[in-house]
Amino acid sequence: MFKKLALVYNRIKDNKGGIFSLLGVSLIILALSAAVYVVGDYFTSLYDGEGAVTSWAYNYTSNPGAVPDRELRIVNTQNPIVTESAVKKQNIYLTKTFEPMKKSKTLVVLTDHSPIIITVNGKEIYNNQYDTADYVGNCYNAVRLEASEREQEVEVFLKLPLSVRFESYFSNSENTAFSLTLNLILGIILLVLGIAALIVFAVLSLKRRKIYRSVTTAFLFAYTGIALMMLNISDATYIFNAPFWLSVKTAAVHLIFVLGVCCISARFLPRKKSLRTAGAAAGLILLASIASFVPALFVIAEAVISVTALTYAVYAAYCFAQLVIKRIMYAVPAFVVCSYYAMTALLAGMFLMLRANSMYAYAVSLTTLVVVGTLEYFNIAYFRYNRKNSDLQEQTLRYGDSVNDISFFIRNMLMCEDKETFFDTAVSEMRVLLEKYNSDNSGMCCSAAVKDENGYKEIVNDGISACRYEIIEKNSLKNNRDCIFSETYFDFVFKKESELIAVIHFENVVNGLDLFFINMIETAYCGLEIAYQKVFNGQQGNLDVIFTELAENTEVDNGYSPEHLVHIAHYVYILCKKLGFGEEEAKRASLASKLHDIGKMAIPKSIINKAGRLTKEEQIVVSCHTKFGYLILSAYRDDPLLCDAAVIARYHHERYDGTGTNELKGEDIPLIARITTVCDVYDALVSERSYKKAWSTEKAQSFMKENAGIIFDPKLVDIFLKTLNEDESVSQEAE
Questions:
Q1: How many angstroms separate the CA atoms of 629 and 240, rounded?
Q2: Are 460 and 502 in contact (CB under 8 A)?
Q3: What tens digit of pLDDT does each residue of 680-725 get?
Q4: What's the whole-model pTM score?
């Protein structure tokens, strides 16, 4: 556990204060919560102060039910009750003489769960377990002072099991058993809203299963209302006066912290682990509550309950800190809320120990409202996210079909032998490609022109009245772009030694800024560029060189270094020679391995370069790069190098245990693909990437050994690692 904490701490330091800045956000939310409390407490005090009864005479007594033989002191708003030593403050006596009353009034006395006797003119009219219990479950006590023409002396005898709390006021209610308070009203409102939301979401969940997430939020909302009612009902009635009620309400309120954190954790952390941890915390809180039978034990139980709730919130924040470092989606707000929860759990525990009941109730209620709001934010975000992924999945299927068409487009373009054929084929094939992707593109118009010393000479024009090629040239040179997009048109620009020599222009395009549409056009342009180099630059017999450059450009576009391809080629050559390949065969496999990820040219860059974890749908799109690479390369069956490259592209993500992309197992996977997999993964591990630091050779080799027979061919791993360890120059040559 301590090693994990040290690891997370080091990652936090490496994260350049990102986690600490999020803790600052949590503190800001806490400060805002405190400001709301101050304002709310001010207005509440104005409401409560209207009927307040002050100027009681009091003193401590060591004998229960006895009038102290010392001089009495006066308690009022300016002079609170003076706290004395623990021995003396076990009992306290208070008295006040009321002026004659024209009508009856209800006198309410609030204590800290104190057994109490109230007498009027020497006659006992209220006794709440004063002689039978050390503490009681209620704080509310009330008696009816009848209308009288004489003064009435009220005496109060209190036991002090927990703290000195004595508040008194006149209530307008004629019923002494119950008084409606603002805090109780808040609990009732939360309960009613929670139950209503629970019913609504439960009904909606029958039609749409995704809404079940909101059912848990509604349940938490309703439970918060119940817990706050249980907490505040002790200040509203003396009906629930059994001693165990104090433990029950304390446990119920602190379980709000556990439930809130559990609901957040269940969204992101492993559910079994979250439920086990939440169950352990809840169980400890309940056990601590059950074990509190006397005041001394109850204080210890409260401390255990508070520490448990705080520890659980801190643990959740620690888990989310790891997810923040890994850049997992929604981990940042989850970490902020859990940190805020931990801070308020600490404050709530302090308020509980200090017997600050109103502040304790406020900390619990407002914190829960923040968590409920956060959970609903997650629910709405997930709903939108799922809709977006659903659209992405639909687009992915359509795009996957179009990649096959792109591969045919590239093949057809590479068959062009002259400029006129190049432009005619480019225009006609692009029209077919775009109409297949989206039938709404049937009305597309296009034109093409070549630049010479006299300006632009138009070669193809299909429905465009006047194309401003000079403006296209200006935009291309200004933005240094060869593909220019808008919602309704796009342009292909071809250059030679940084000078523009040809333009192909397309208009009346539908949804031209769609993610997959743009990527499809850019991929098609890559094919056009290959054909362009053949036709315009005379590179007729160097397809392997063209494809290698294309693979290197794809590697750069994906945020990696093209040196990765050089390293792989070197390792593949060495390993092939160790396996007995001939010189020509080893070189061909080495060069072919450079093209293993060329299919990523057909993957949207926004997905490839996405920060954080990919969605399932996005992972499916990325996994298609093996199929895309195979489709693009397999067209050249007469080229041995590109045929090997097509095999490697198709099967380099197979796993030796048969759980890979195509589910080939063991030696059913082509040997050159198994060789490339070993070399590719090892170099990726020891190389620095945007999402990780470079692993040490020892750690990388340990990973390879652990996964031999699972991901990798164990024989190849053994030969590869022995070669690396016996001859250090192999790694140095790769570098």
A1: 74
A2: no
A3: 999 888 887 665 678 888 888 899 999 898 889 999 999 998 888 7
A4: 0.54
C-beta separation of 285 from 255 below 8 A: yes
The pair of structure tokens assigned to 241 is 């006066």
Q: List C-alpha distances in Å: 100 to 148, 573, 655.
A: 5, 108, 94
Record the tokens describing residue 144, joined without a space: 């009816």
Q: What is the C-alpha separation between 249 and 186, in angstroms, rounded?
A: 16
Sheet order of strands, 123-128 included: 73-75, 56-60, 91-98, 152-159, 116-120, 123-128
Q: Quick one: DSSP state of residue 430? A: H
C-alpha angle 492-493-499 in degrees, rounded to nearest 5: 175
Nearest-angstrom CA–CA distance, 142 and 169: 10
Alpha carbons 631 and 650: distance in angstroms, whole number: 9
Please answer whether residues 162 and 192 qualify as being in contact, where contact means their C-beta atoms are separated by less than 8 angstroms: no
Q: What is the CA radius of gyration of the chain?
A: 38
In tens, the pLDDT along 556-574 reads 666 666 788 888 899 999 9
* 355: Cα within 13 Å, side-chain hemisphere: 16
Q: So what's the pLDDT on residue 16?
A: 45
Copy the structure tokens of residue 229: 């009612």
Distance CA 357, CA 350 (A): 11
pLDDT of residue 613: 65
Could you tell me how many residues make up the chain? 735
Element holding 19 (H helix, E strand)? helix 18-48
Q: Are 634 and 648 in contact (CB under 8 A)?
A: no
Could you identify the residue written with the tokens 């074990």?
A: 291
Contacts of 370 (CB under 8 A, 6+ apart): 29, 33, 337, 340
Tell me which DSSP letter residue 99 carries. P
Torsion of CA 522, 593, 715, 581, to 10 degrees: 160
Q: How wide is the angle at C-alpha 98 spanned by C-alphas 97 and 101, nearest 5°?
A: 155
Longest Cα–Cα distance in the chain:
121
Residue 632 near residue 547 (C-beta atoms within 8 A): no
Residue found by looking up tokens 């192909």 in the block: 504
Specify the residue for token string 């590239």. Answer: 410
Choose among 153, 147, 150, 152: nearest CA to 102. 147
Q: What is the pLDDT of residues 393-443, one digit of tens each?
A: 666 666 666 766 777 787 778 777 777 888 888 888 888 888 877 777 888
Beta strands in 23-115 (DSSP E): 56-60, 73-75, 91-98, 105-110
| Greater model confidence, 399 or 244 | 244
Angstrom distance (rounded) from CA 409 to CA 425: 9
Burial of 602 (0-12, 13-18, 19+ CB in 10 A): buried
**Helix ranges restricted to H, 326-453:** 331-353, 357-414, 419-437
Whether 517 and 511 have beta carbons less than 8 Å apart is answered as yes
pLDDT digits (tens, 9 = 90+) for 274-315: 788 888 888 888 888 777 667 777 778 878 888 888 888 888
575 touches 525 (CB < 8 A)? no
In angstroms, the Cα distances linking 323 to 318, 334, 342, 613 are 9, 10, 18, 10
Q: How far apart are CA 623 and CA 610, in angstroms?
A: 15
Helix, strand or coil, per DSSP, at residue 396: helix
Place of tokens 């352990």: 280
For residue 458, give the 3-state DSSP assignment.
strand
